[in-house]
Every structure is written in structure tokens, then in C-alpha cells.
């Protein structure tokens, strides 16, 4: 109810207005509105905040830069920079991606050369492709960067390290000497974020600005490794784990709320010719578009909670020096981020399209969501690259499964029990335990199939790296299959352990079965090819899905209402709680800047001569048409 937090209509603002408004609102919320325990904003408002603000600023400052100080800094460095960053007295970003490289980190070209005489690092972008490009908050906001650069001592390269580099003056906010920095221009979304470019030429920083939890450089230039160097990639794992809830589950839930509510209001066409027009939600085709996406919200939410818990447990172990869980966590977080962002972004577009013409209007609130979700497929690890990272781990585990009993998320790779499906009715295929087994079997076969294909190629003389490249599509499919079995399995377990009413558990179980069956029906080629289902059982799987659509239809609106988004959060003429779609659309359109005058003078000047000629002809004064 705080008017300072109410959204102005984003679609009627310029990019610069949105950038400025997002900064005002973010700082107001984080520094004025919310109670804080040290850095951490606390209380129920924080949960609301994560749902409420459509356009944050300082996402990278808060979500990446500060956690990196904690992960990569020594206690002294944390004591120095954390309080400043936590209170926004310095603004930072995570500057890793370059104009020429984003996925292949070993190809990064920015270098930090140690100058022993002055005990400094000299930072350089040796050529244009080395320029940092994309980091959020970097173009106009940040005055510091956590710069990921190649450490060089006496001509020897030591790989990517993190350096604290000040880029703007703390009084004037002007770029410092040797720093060229700015905004990278208009993007598909994130209009309010100043993703930036950063060109560094002979910028000097003290030796103490190398974040030294994992390695350090002594004054004489001696390089000391202090821990598992893979932990240098830890920031990306943490963001991948955390972004699923924030940037995939939440936006998809908003899109589903809008589309389901609108579909309950929008009447179009007839089912029974003798009856009145029906709400489009009565069409099974519409239910088939919307309800599996609603199910995805819940299943992704449950799986993400499990992944966050796994990351938390791993973090506690790392503090004790045990990094043994890192390979599995990296593979799972990379795979989950890739597969759920792929599903989420596709799902948001499916439900947008299901709203017809008004779904194409920014007044629906859907284009904002769809465009923003598309970015989740690219940032924090491009999806294909992430799926291949996941597959790399799965192939290794499949080899190990031949001699060891595996545990954790890959346990099923060493499960050699009979996994044939005995389902005789579509009801059998709605059973959670049957659906879990089907997904485990499909994943195991997909991993083994990809591995076998590569082994055969290598046996026939193909170099391993070429076999890997040529089988990439099978490897990506194996990664997807692995994640799907993880999402279905963790969701079934989560729901079974949930203490809630029987009616709620029934709905959640139906949604879980719908999610699993929709995945089976969308990938039935795999399920038949790997002998998981017969062709007749595939028919039953389709019947099972359609039956669930029918069962869930009466509760569809109630289910999305349970996400509890206010109208101000949704900013949607189609998804407002009162369902007054047409009045809201008309009011929204009238507020468009284009309509602030009845005649748009700038364009009228071009049209005026022709209109006047037409007027004269119609009033009998003008010459006949030139044509
Ligand atoms: C909290 C925030 C919440 C929400 C965010 C809100 C909104 C988001 C808004 C905007 C976006 C925000 C930020 C965006 C930030 C960014 O995009 S930052 C840049 C992200 N960039 C990447 O992710 C780069 C991806 N590339 C890589 O990670 C690596 O290049 C690679 C693909 C993994 C390859 O690396 P490399 O060549 O060194 O490795 P390999 O030879 O393939 O493997 C070597 C071994 O290392 C293991 N490995 C690789 N990565 C990791 C890791 N991260 N952790 C642990 N281990 C890792 C790999 O498994 C190999 O192990 P082995 O098999 O045992 O040899
Ligand atoms: C909205 C947004 C915010 C961002 N914020 C930040 C930030 O704050 N900080 C930061 O450092 N970066 C940020 N990034 C950059 C982001 O991390 C990179 O764009 C991302 O890692 C992808 O790298 P790339 O752009 O080099 O794509 P590329 O890797 O060049 O991808 C191009 C194509 O090559 C394919 N490809 C690449 N490598 C392989 C391979 N090994 N095998 C098969 N195919 C491959 C990809 O699948 C893709 O199809 C942001 C990006 C966006 C869009």
C-alpha cells in the first residue's frame, strides 16, 4: 500500500525513465522500507519484494557481486568490502563475459599482470574482443567491478582470477583514468538494467585487490594455491541454483495466472451449436496449452527447493574443506538451469499465444514476462553449454555405474532392476510411482545410448573429441532426460511428504502426474525407442493426460489464484482479479503517450497535404485523382 512502491505503467515509460525509476524503487525498498539484519533485508516484506518489483536494479550487485566477495575474499577483504557493498556505499557488478567470449571461460582475454616493483596488478584489455560486455549494473551504476581476468606473473598464465577494480570516481561518478565504460544499448528485455561495456587500459590496482581466498600472490610474485580451483566457478553455480525460483518459477506463475484468468473470461465460439459462446478455457485445446504450464510452475518450484537445499548442504561442507559434492552439484545446477529455463521460456510463450491478439498487447503484461524469461536461456551459462556440462558428468557416472553402486541424483544409472512398465489402463499411468520409474528408465537409456554411440565411434578410430561433438544432440537429450527424472522424482517425494489437506494433496498429485504425462507425450519417441512404453501404452498416456485436464479444469482459476499475485504485481489488463478485461484494456490504451493529443502533430504534417486534396475532391473543389 506504499504509493512509493506502486508501479507506473512501464510500457508508457522510456528506457531511461525505467532505469531511473527501478533504481529509486529498489533503493527505497532495500534501504528505507525493509527491516534489515546487517546486509540481509528480513521479514515478510522481503518475500513480497521478490514477487512485487517488476524491475529491480542492482540485481548483479546484490545477487552476484556481494556473494562473490563472500566466496572469493579473505576475511580481511570481506571485512573491507562487504559492509560498503551491503550498504550500497559501493556499487559493484560481476564482470566476466567479454565481447569475444562468454561460454568458453578459458578463452577470456582480459589480463592482470603482476608488477612486482610496485606490488600492483596492471589490468588490460589487449584488444576489442577482450572488452567486458554484458555485466548488469555496469554501464552507468557500478563504481566497482569484480573483474574476472587471466592472472599473469613473469609471463606465466595462472588462469581466471577475481580482482576488485574501481572504475568510477566515488565523488563525481566519472570513469577513472584508463576506464572506458557505458551502456550496451537496447535489449530484448531488462530495459531497466544498464548492462554495460568496460574497456580497461593500463589500470593499476593494489596487490591486495586480488580476491585471495583460493589463491594469493606474495609481494615477491610467488603464487600460492589455497583450495580447489573449481571453487572459482562457484558464483555461477550459486546463481544458477537461485535464479530458478526467481526468474523461472515466479514469472511463469505470473504468466499462467494472467492466461488462465483471461481464458476463464474470454468467450469465443461455440462447442455445442445450440448453446451460448463458451469461455475459451472450456476448449480442451486451450486446457492442453495452459494446464501443463501451471503444473510446470509447481514441479519446478519443488525441484528448485530441493536443489537450493542441496546447495546449502554443500556450502556447509565446503566451509569444512569438503568439496566432494561439487561435481554433482555443478552438473545438476547446470542441467536444471538449462532445462527449466528452456521449459519455462517456452511455456510462457505458449500461454501468451493462448491469449490471442490481446496476448500480443503489452497491456496483457505477457510480452514483458516472455522477453525477460528468454534471457534465462542465455545468461548464467548458455543452455546448450550447460546441458553438455551436465551430460559430461552423466557419461562419467554411467561408466562408473558398471562397477560401483551410485548414489545421489544419478543413483538410477546403477539400478539394474526390471523397469518394464505393466500399465494396462490410463489410470495406471497416472500413478506417481509408475511415472517416476518411467522417467528413470528413459534417462538411464538415454545416457547409455549416447555413451555407447561415442564408444563405438572411438573404437572405430574417431578421436574422442570428435565423437563428443558429433553426438552432442544425443548428449543434450540425455541431460534433459536426467533433469526430467530429477524433477518428477523430487516432486513426487516432496508432495508425498507434504503435510496438507487431502484435497490439496490430490490437486498437487494431479498436477505432478499432468507434468510427467505431458513430458512423456511430448517425448514419446524416446519412451518407445528405449522400450519404456509400448505403442498401446503411449495411447494410454495421452488418454491419461486428457483425463487430468478434465479433472483439473474446474480448479484451474483457483489454482492460479493461489499464487496470490496482486493486480499491481501482474500489471495486466487480462489477468486482473476482477476480470474486467475490456474496460481495463481500453483505459490502458487511452493512457498511451500516443494518445495524449487527439492529433499527432509530428506525423500530421506529412499527411496533411494529401488529406486536404482528398477533402477538396470529396467536396467537389479538387481535381480528379492523379490515378
Ligand atoms: C541470485 C541471483 C538470482 C537471480 C538472478 C536474477 C536475475 C538475473 C538477471 C540477469 C542475469 C544475472 C546475471 C548473469 C550473470 C552471468 O551471466 S555471469 C557469466 C555466466 N557465464 C557462464 O556461466 C560461463 C559458462 N562457461 C563455463 O562455466 C565454463 O567455460 C565451462 C563451460 C564450464 C567450461 O569450462 P572449462 O573449459 O574450464 O571446463 P571443462 O574443461 O568443460 O571442465 C573442467 C572441469 O571443471 C568442472 N567445472 C566446470 N564448471 C564448473 C563449475 N561451475 N563448478 C564446478 N565444476 C565445474 C567440469 O565439470 C570439469 O570437471 P571434470 O569433468 O571433473 O574434469
Ligand atoms: C540479460 C543478460 C545478462 C547478463 N549478465 C551478465 C553479467 O552480469 N555478467 C557477465 O559476466 N555476463 C553476463 N551476461 C553474459 C552471459 O553470461 C553470456 O551471454 C552467456 O554466458 C553466453 O555466452 P556467449 O554470449 O558467449 O554465447 P556463445 O557461447 O557465443 O553462444 C553462441 C552459440 O554457440 C554455442 N556454443 C558455445 N559453446 C559451445 C560448445 N562448447 N558446444 C556447443 N555449442 C556451443 C551456444 O550453444 C550458442 O548456440 C548476460 C547476458 C544476458 C543476455
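^ C-alpha cells above, recovered residues below v
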Amino acid at each position: 500500500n506504499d504509493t512509493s512502491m506502486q508501479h507506473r505503467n512501464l510500457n508508457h515509460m522510456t528506457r531511461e525513465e525505467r532505469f531511473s525509476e527501478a533504481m529509486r524503487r529498489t533503493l527505497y525498498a532495500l534501504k528505507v522500507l525493509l527491516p534489515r539484519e546487517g546486509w540481509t533485508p528480513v521479514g515478510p516484506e522481503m518475500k513480497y519484494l521478490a514477487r512485487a518489483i517488476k524491475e529491480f536494479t542492482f540485481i548483479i550487485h546484490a545477487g552476484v557481486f556481494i556473494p562473490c566477495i563472500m566466496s572469493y575474499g579473505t576475511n580481511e577483504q570481506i571485512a573491507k568490502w562487504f559492509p560498503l557493498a551491503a550498504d550500497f556505499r559501493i556499487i559493484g557488478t560481476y564482470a566476466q563475459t567479454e565481447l569475444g567470449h562468454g561460454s568458453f571461460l578459458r578463452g577470456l582475454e582480459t589480463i592482470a599482470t603482476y608488477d612486482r616493483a610496485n606490488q600492483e596488478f596492471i589490468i588490460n584489455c589487449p584488444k576489442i574482443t577482450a572488452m567486458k560486455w554484458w555485466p548488469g549494473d555496469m554501464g552507468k551504476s557500478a563504481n566497482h567491478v569484480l573483474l574476472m581476468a587471466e592472472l599473469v606473473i613473469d609471463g606465466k598464465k595462472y588462469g581466471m582470477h577475481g580482482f576488485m577494480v574501481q572504475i568510477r570516481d566515488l565523488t563525481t561518478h566519472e570513469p577513472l583514468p584508463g576506464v572506458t565504460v557505458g551502456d550496451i544499448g537496447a535489449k530484448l528485455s531488462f530495459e531497466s538494467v544498464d548492462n554495460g561495456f568496460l574497456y580497461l587500459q593500463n589500470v593499476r590496482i593494489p596487490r591486495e585487490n586480488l580476491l585471495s581466498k583460493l589463491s594469493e600472490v606474495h609481494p615477491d610474485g610467488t603464487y600460492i594455491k589455497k583450495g580447489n580451483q573449481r571453487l572459482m566457478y562457484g558464483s555461477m553455480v550459486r546463481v544458477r541454483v537461485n535464479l530458478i525460483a526467481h526468474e523461472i518459477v515466479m514469472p511463469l506463475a505470473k504468466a499462467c495466472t494472467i492466461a488462465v484468468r483471461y481464458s476463464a473470461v474470454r468467450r469465443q465460439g461455440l462447442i455445442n451449436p445450440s448453446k451460448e459462446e463458451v469461455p475459451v478455457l472450456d476448449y480442451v485445446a486451450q486446457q492442453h496449452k495452459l494446464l501443463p504450464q501451471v503444473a510446470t510452475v509447481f514441479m519446478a518450484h519443488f525441484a528448485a527447493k530441493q536443489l537450493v537445499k542441496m546447495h546449502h548442504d554443500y556450502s556447509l561442507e565446503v566451509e569444512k574443506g569438503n568439496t566432494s559434492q561439487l561435481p554433482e552439484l555443478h552438473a545438476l545446477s547446470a542441467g536444471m538451469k538449462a532445462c527449466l529455463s528452456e521449459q519455462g521460456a517456452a511455456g510462457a510463450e505458449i500461454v501468451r499465444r493462448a491469449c490471442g491478439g490481446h496476448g500480443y498487447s503489452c497491456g496483457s503484461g505477457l510480452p514483458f514476462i516472455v522477453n525477460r524469461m528468454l534471457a534465462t536461456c542465455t545468461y548464467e551459462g548458455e543452455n546448450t553449454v550447460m546441458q553438455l556440462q551436465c551430460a559430461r558428468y552423466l557419461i562419467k557416472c554411467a561408466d562408473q555405474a558398471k562397477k560401483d553402486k551410485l548414489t545421489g541424483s544419478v543413483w538410477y544409472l546403477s539400478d539394474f532392476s526390471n523397469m518394464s512398465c505393466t500399465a494396462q489402463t490410463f489410470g495406471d499411468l497416472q500413478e506417481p510411482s509408475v511415472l517416476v520409474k518411467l522417467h528413470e528408465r528413459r534417462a538411464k537409456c538415454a545416457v547409455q545410448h549416447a555413451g555407447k554411440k561415442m564408444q563405438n565411434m572411438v573404437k572405430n578410430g574417431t578421436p574422442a573429441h570428435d565423437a563428443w561433438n558429433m553426438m552432442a544432440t544425443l548428449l543434450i537429450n540425455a541431460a534433459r532426460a536426467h533433469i526430467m527424472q530429477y524433477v518428477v522424482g523430487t516432486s513426487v517425494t516432496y508432495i508425498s511428504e507434504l503435510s496438507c489437506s487431502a484435497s490439496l494433496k490430490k490437486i498437487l498429485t494431479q498436477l505432478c502426474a499432468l507434468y510427467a504425462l505431458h513430458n512423456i507425450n511430448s517425448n514419446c519417441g524416446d519412451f518407445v525407442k528405449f522400450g519404456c512404453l509400448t505403442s498401446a501404452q503411449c495411447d494410454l498416456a495421452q488418454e491419461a493426460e486428457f483425463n487430468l485436464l478434465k479433472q483439473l479444469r474446474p480448479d484451474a482459476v483457483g489454482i492460479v489464484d493461489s499464487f496470490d499475485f496482486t493486480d499491481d504485481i501482474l500489471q495486466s489488463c487480462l489477468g486482473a482479479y476482477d476480470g474486467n478485461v475490456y474496460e481495463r484494456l481500453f483505459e490502458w490504451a487511452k493512457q498511451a503517450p500516443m494518445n495524449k493529443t487527439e492529433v499527432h502533430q509530428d506525423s500530421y504534417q506529412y499527411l496533411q497535404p494529401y488529406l486536404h486534396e482528398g477533402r477538396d475532391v470529396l467536396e467537389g473543389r479538387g481535381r480528379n485523382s492523379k490515378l
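The two ends are 61 Å apart (CA to CA).
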